[in-house]
Amino acid sequence: MKKILPTILLNLFFILPVLSQELPKEKIQDSITKYSYLTEEASDNYDYKESIEAANIALSYAMQIDDFYNISVLFNDLGLAYESISELEKSKKNYLQALRYAEKIKNDTLQCWVYNNMGNMYSEGFKKIDSALLYYKKSLEYAQKTKDTFEILTPILNIGWTYIDIKEFDLALPYLNESQKMIYTRHGDDPGKAQINYLLGSYYMNKNDLEKADDYFKTSLRFAHDAEMLGELTEIYEKYSILAKKQGNNELALNRLQKHLEYKDSLYNKDKVRETQAAVAKFEVDDYKKDLERAKAAQKTQETIIKKSQQISYILMIAGFILILLLINMFKNYKFRNKALSKLRLKNAELREAKEEAEQQANLKSQFFSTVSHELRTPLYGVVGLTALLSEDFPNLKDNENFKSLKFSSKYLLSLINNVLQINKIESKGVTLGRTPFKIRDLINEVVNSFSFAINQNKNTVHQEIDPKIPAVLMGDSVRLSQILMNLIGNAIKFTETGNIWIRLELVHQKEKMHTIKFTIEDDGIGIPKDKQVSVFEKFVQLRPIEKNYQGTGLGLSIVKQLLVLFDSHIRLKSEENNGTEFTFVIAFEESCESSLKSANPPIESIDGIEKSILIVDDNKINRVITKRILQTKGYLCDVAEGGLEAIELLQEKRYDLILMDINMPNIDGIETTKRIRKTDQKTPIIALTAVEEDQIKDRIHDAGMNDFIIKPYDLAEFHQIVLKNLYKGII
């Protein structure tokens, strides 16, 4: 059974736009009305070819005056015509155009019609029920805006009908009940009453309420007969026959089935005419459209030629005038371009010079820091070395306050030098993270012990709180971690007097072998004012209270911030003035495969009394004396050489168990000296003594054939361990 189509609605609600006073527009409007009428008349007679032709002509007129209302209506008519001849894609395309123009004029009635038609197309043509229901509900949405009972009734009835067709009877009932209420408030709508009673009869027959079903089918037949609805009568008698059979009246069922067949024959003849017309139209429509498009194209071409012939004289005059202006402008541009090119060449030359100068300055800066590193650390080596020797020669000095101050000052000076060099190294992208196993608890203890003098001097108490769930041995860069902790703990000690410093390590997350640890350094010292809590992480910024001058370069927190970036972390600061400071950061470390670290070197005490011969090569007299004294205290036999050439001569006369080689020396440096020694001696261990940073010299010394290196100034314990390791390599 065909569902309600809005063709009748178009006849009932077709309203002409207000005519303008201009005669040409009135004639166009008359043409639109004329061909719109022919469109609907041809459609009613199943002459779809004529219907499409008339609609296209009306559409062309409507387009000329931007009559969006009639444009939308005519696209809707084209959609109906193409749907009737099963050209569903063309039908869909025209419906969408109809919607576009209906939306432009915000006409709810038009949008209601078009969405309802699209629902019919998807239900009966594409057989996509979900899409059909979606469009019916969209139609209902716009119908409700119109507050017109008839407009609202159409989509409600179609939704209920669709649910009946797919046997979703319970979903259909609310829509059927609503349709029934609305249909009986109208007068003369026999087709609608026939349809709703038919659907309710189908519903109650499915629910086995046969008496109610019989009443609804009987009522439906009465209205369908009055309206001469062949299609509805065919379906009603078919269902009515099934009802009679369910009621046990086979004779009545047979009679009704015969009625069904009679109406079906009548409907068949009517459908046959319609289908024949549709088939003819389907073949002729494409030819018509091609002819129409060719005619339109020819008309447009002719109009274009006429317009061009009228404008050509003006264009030639304007073109001549523009050509003169262009020639004048080109001449001016040529002069301006030459002038601009000269300036650009000069600017490029200046930029090249500036670039070369910047590169030269960068190289000079790098060389300067390398020289500063050597020149500062070399004399500092003497201070630190002599301090260490004095503490061994005179054990009582260890308790002397002046000696403690001397030792602290030398370490403090070394820390300042290291900070300046470290910040330059970070900025030049010269710092990368290493990966070695280390004991986290030993590292914390070593950092705290290095500040023992400052802790005692400021009368502070240091508290260590380390989460027992943190593994004993971790894998990562312990050197960079210790630099971070030394700067933070050093700050806490420096800005706290007669107070407390807390060092907390908490395991906050664990996934397999990765352990995320939260580090907290807290003190109850002077705190940091709010207005300085951002700037303290900048270079050379110091916190200087009026009543006391705290020494330092102001680089510590800047170094901490930049080192934490390497660990994919960042530092958080929480502080109140006169109420302490708290720094926190989080770093993820991998648990080491070994549960503990075994020392690769034997205790330093084990080397006492071992008579091994060592050659010390150094151009600095103080450094030679200090190095020799340090080694002699452990029982080594030492010879010294002031330069590389003297060392080579000594090696020709005597064999040594180990060579300590300074890098920077006059005539030939330690690198060149080592290369010459390795030509005749591949076995004797050679250790580099250098005041240059490890990453600046490491590759060079190994390429030259050196076995190890010691950075000046060095810790005595570390110095002895490296010497011992190279003396007994392969044995211990």
Descriptive report:
The chain has 732 residues and is of the alpha/beta class. Among the domains are: 159 residues, Heat Shock Protein 90; 124 residues, Rossmann fold (3-Layer(aba) Sandwich), CATH 3.40.50. The chain has 23 helices and twelve strands. Strands 1, 2, 3, 4, 5, 6 and 7 form a seven-stranded mixed beta sheet that branches. A five-stranded parallel beta sheet has the order 9-8-10-11-12, with helices on both faces. Helix 7 packs antiparallel against helix 8 and helix 11 runs antiparallel to helix 12. InterPro entries: CheY-like_superfamily, HATPase_C_sf, HATPase_dom, His_kinase_dom, HisK_dim/P_dom, HisK_dim/P_sf, Sig_transdc_His_kin-like_C, Sig_transdc_resp-reg_receiver. It comes from Kordia algicida OT-1. Keywords: Coiled coil, Kinase, Membrane, Phosphoprotein, TPR repeat, Transferase, Transmembrane, Transmembrane helix, Two-component regulatory system.
